[in-house]
Write a structure and sequence with these properties.
With about 270 residues, the chain is an alpha+beta fold. It has one domain: Sortase, Chain: A. The chain contains three helices and 16 strands.
Length: about 270
């Protein structure tokens, strides 16, 4: 009994030290693209017969067009002669994707269908997506947890739609065995810092639905306590990916934000 008691104390102490170490690293998961990497509120003029529609999208953008057509990274704006090679044209999307600003306004406003798959090539994430249902508990109701899939809250925006689509996945599930589709999601904050350092690059999220594929680019990551997480909408085309952290405690939520930049219509 004494041996078992000592072993239990050692395991408990190791767990508490591990949790304390993980909690100390939570702040490092807050990250965002610098202002010189993301250009906010881009006015996009789209011609539609005799009318002109001005759409304001908060698109991920890695350059700014000077009036004479050259592309410069913002850090060279004060001295264009020193322009480097770290500009990234927004039009350089993966093969087959059209820039959102090139699409007809009426096409952007049509219903897109529910998500069926998500992939994040930089992290090797590739998973089917399912709509989450409501489960009745003894004294409350809540959304069911996704089982080896990424779950979408049905009341939030679908891929390609104006609004904020919320998608949940497990970091890990050692006790319930529900998978770990978002195991590598905590790597995104460091990747964002790398992009800020070199001034170019992107983390692409591809959402697929019955109407086509929709390309989002990650702009930020944020850590919230589980009690602070709220589901909210947007006037832009956004997605929010959520997983529980830290490992073995799961008291907080990591929220990854992405903006729509490209579309591949099927």
């Amino acid at each position: 009994m004494i041996v078992f008691g000592l072993l239990a104390l050692v395991l408990l102490g190791a767990y508490l030290l591990y949790v304390a170490n993980q909690n100390s690293k939570l702040e490092e998961l807050n990250s965002a693209l610098d202002d010189d990497v993301v250009a906010e509120n881009i006015a996009i003029t789209i011609d539609n017969q005799d009318d002109e529609y001005l759409l304001s999208y908060n698109l991920a953008k890695h350059f700014s067009n000077m009036h004479f057509g050259a592309s410069f990274h913002p850090k060279y704006w004060h001295d264009p002669i020193k322009t480097g090679t770290d500009s990234r044209l927004l039009s350089e999307l993966p093969f087959g994707f059209d820039l959102v600003s090139h699409l007809d306004h009426s096409l952007l406003m049509k219903p897109k269908g529910t998500a069926i798959r998500i992939s994040i090539p930089a992290l090797g994430i590739d998973s089917i997506v399912e709509e989450l249902g409501i489960v009745d508990l003894s004294d409350s109701r809540e959304y069911e947890t996704p089982d080896h899939t990424v779950g979408h809250i049905p009341e939030t925006a679908d891929p390609g739609e104006i609004g904020n689509g919320w998608f949940f996945g497990h970091l890990e599930s050692p006790f319930s065995g529900e998978g770990n589709v978002f195991r590598r999601l905590p790597e995104i904050p460091e990747l964002l810092r790398d992009i800020n350092e070199i001034g170019e690059g992107s983390i692409d999220i591809i959402m697929e639905s019955s109407s086509g594929q929709y390309l989002y680019q990650v702009t930020s990551s944020e850590v919230l306590h589980a009690d602070e997480l709220t589901i909210y909408g947007s006037e832009e085309a956004l997605i929010s990916l959520v997983t529980c952290i830290p490992s073995l405690k799961y008291s907080h939520r990591l929220v990854i934000k992405g903006l729509l930049v490209g579309v591949k219509i099927e």
